[in-house]
Fold:
Amino acid sequence: MDVKVLTEYEQSSLSQRQPLPERYLGLGLEEMERRIRAAKATLGDRLLILGHHYQRDEVLVHADVVGDSWKLSRECKARSQAEFVVFCGVHFMAESADILGADHQKVSLPDLAAGCSMADMADLDQLTTCWRELEAMGLTEGLVPVTYINSSAAIKAFVGEHGGTICTSGNARATLEWAWARGQRILFMPDQHLGRNTAWKMGVPLDQMLVWDPEEVAGGHTAEALRASRLLLWKGHCSVHTRFTVSQIANIRKQHPGIRVIVHPEVPLEVVQAADESGSTEHILKRVRESAPGSVWAVGTEIHLVNRLANEVAPGKTVVTLDQFGCLCSTMFRVSPNHLLWVLEGMIDGVVHNHIVVPEPTKHWARVALDRMLSIQ
Ligand code: 13P
Ligand code: SF4
Structure:
């Protein structure tokens, strides 16, 4: 059985995790709404609440900025005046906010258990082993490491220190262009689907891409095969987006002739091929909002975004979920209004609950990589 060795930082993050105090349980939504608004008014400009599109409505309604990973990273950097940043999203997003934010800013993640299963699929030990194996085969010369923002600060730092960068689903194509301008081969982590879908759309043949399995020696390949490749795709995936299938698309087209299907690029390649379009959460929203009146869309991404969009554009346009059972990101869902209220009232009392602090030198190198990301559009 594999035992995941936690870094000191991961261990301290987990040991900080604490159950919500009794007095924050069982509160009615109306009372929480009222108290959250009051806490926001008290904290004023000292507070910035960032919210990812996959958050539940009761939480997102309190966000000062709502966006995808790309937009929220930019906002962290741009709004450096706020003393407290509450990140309603998942752990890697709050880490990125701490890395990109100003030194005086304190970032809080309302529930420390809000992680990302994909980010957990690549750890620093595995990446270090991968790099050493490739180095032994003489394959790190001209190898550019790229990590999706859905990864730990430690992975981001490794990439920064080794001349690589970070991408989001919003700038993945530009990032691969950037990386291939600097080397002949890319190691792309941790989402094989985003890497494959982006490269395939750029016209890279599938036989130039290999999946690197961190559980296998040399990723499961011979040195010859690795040498012939241009893109090494880490064997990671999103458990939410890999639930979308080609047969769901076929069914929805039968039910709604003329429907347009748009999916997030974390879905498998055959689903992107069967859809009409793909793009980041921000891109999906833009496409549907800007489409002609009467348009009918099937959207393949997290259910909270899909439902919110459907309500927003109805009755002029129709939006349905591609998966009728609704794909929920259960870790995003862990951030509740109760957690948000607890964190905000704590700040008023001078306590930062679930304070996310990325230690040096990880922070330095991760910032190098994130700054490179922000310069690639
Ligand atoms: P976006 O960057 O498109 O918002 O996606 C983040 C994410 O976690 C998707 O699963
Ligand atoms: Fe991670 Fe997938 Fe949830 Fe996005 S939807 S945060 S990739 S588990």
